[in-house]
Amino acid sequence: MGKRAPARRRPLKAKPGTKGLGPAECRLEQPTRSCSGSCGSNPESRLRCGIVHTSIALLESGNLEVILSATQPRVVIVGGGFGGLFATRALAGAPVSVTLIDKRNCHLFRPMLYQVATGLLSADEIAGPLRSILNRQKNVAVLLDEVSGIDTEKRLVHLKQHVIPYDFLVLATGIQYNYFGHEDWRRTAPGLESLDDADLIRGKILLAFERAEEIAAFDQADTEKIRQRLTFVLVGAGTVGVEMAGTLAEMSRMALAHDFRHIDPRSAGILLYEAAPRVLPSFPEVLSAKAQRHLESLGVKVYTNTRVTNVDTDGIVANGERVPAGTVLWSAGVLASPAGRWLGAAMDKSGKVIVNSDLSVPGHPEIFVIGDTAHVVAQARNLLGINAKEPMVMPGVAQPAIQEGKYVAGLIRRRLQGQRPPAPFWYWDKGDLAIVGRTYALADLRFLRFAGFSAWIVWAAVHIYFLIGFANRFFVILQWGIAFLTKRRQVRVFPGEEDSAKAA
Fold first, then answer.
1. What is the pLDDT of residues 34-66, one digit of tens each?
2. Contact between residue 281 and residue 238 where contact means Cβ atoms under 8 Å apart
3. Which residues form the catalytic set?
4. Nearest-angstrom CA–CA distance, 254 and 437
5. Which helix (H) or strand (E) holds 128?
6. Contact 392, 377 (CB under 8 A)
7. Which of 95, 145, 242, 473 is the most exposed place for a label (fewest CB within 10 A)?
8. Could you please report the per-residue DSSP string of 31-96?
9. In whole angstroms, what is the distance from residue 486 CA to residue 489 CA?
10. Residue from 169, 149, 266 nearest 212 by CA
């Protein structure tokens, strides 16, 4: 018998009804094998040629995992916070290739970031590496990079030096603090956004006591300078501002009370400023009043209806009055990330992208915006399943982001399976929690409102539950127990020399 003639390779063709292969259908910028020259010099023709050669090479490789990842729909998720992480995890086992992009390598549990800033917890107890969290999810790749723009027409995400194509894009890029046009205040009055910020703030707080001790040791007569060093101003009485104020008061009056020889840390002044009529404006008035009374019982001076108009190294100006202070911390409003500008989409006054009822961007059903990046108005139900009378704007807390991430992942699955789209997103409103002291918190469950130790138990249980990883939960509980019994702070180490210099 003669040798069989080699089978002719059939040319790859586009599916009926499509326009052929586009840039978003190839991950490689160059073909893997040389071209006969028929593609010409046109870049688009060369790209199509490269895609054909790459596809052939993948088929010949016999590596099923590589073939599937190269041919499956690509889902790009930007942001490894609550929304991005839960969307990624909800796509486990789905026939998609997921790329999770974040400029930091960890998922940060931001609701407890203030405890790192005040020395109660260490950074690794409220953060976990994204690669470690997702290491068993085989359809996910994690990239440490930063997005600089999005080409919605070509479906490309632009990074600092590379581009990534997508079939579905999920933006969960979070927020930053709003200095209301005074970005120069950021250096003097840092906000609590990241672990670096927490280290910087902890350094500023501890260094203030150290500098006051130094002044008292060598120049005891300069009481005004000592008083200024021991004055801490917090601008903004939202959840973060209230938590920081209460924790700072307890820190100075308990944890540091017996550590200095020339100053009395208990004399430190904690001043909390809020432009609105009351603290915690998003909570019911009865709970706001209880929070203010508890803060005042801790020694915090609360100033409502007071607008801060200037911040500098000597303190602040509030309602036209100069207030000397050695440390100023900012928590007075937020702005969304630049996602809206990347997309050219409609935004609210805070820069959040206004989305459809399925969390997609108008005109772009393949792009979804979730969490703090999105302006979402949706129907809500409380813990008992009772519908709210009116749709509500989603608050900037973890639960909406988590639920939105899961919803978008489910929607993508349904589209890929050719199923009918799901009902519009609705929010399971589990209420709001805020901590005001070491054993005092507020709980607004909508149908039930209470404050005190019982609310603190609820707060602690919820936050421990949503921490990522068993080890993190164990060590946080251990640290809380030690701090409760000893009234001490375990993390008293200053940040690096460079950060310490900035803090000074």
1. 444 445 444 344 434 544 444 455 555 555 455
2. yes
3. 243
4. 12
5. strand 127-129
6. yes
7. 95
8. -SS---STT-S-HHHHHHHHHHHHHHHHHHH--HHHHHHHHSPEEEEE--SHHHHHHHHHTTTSSS
9. 9
10. 266
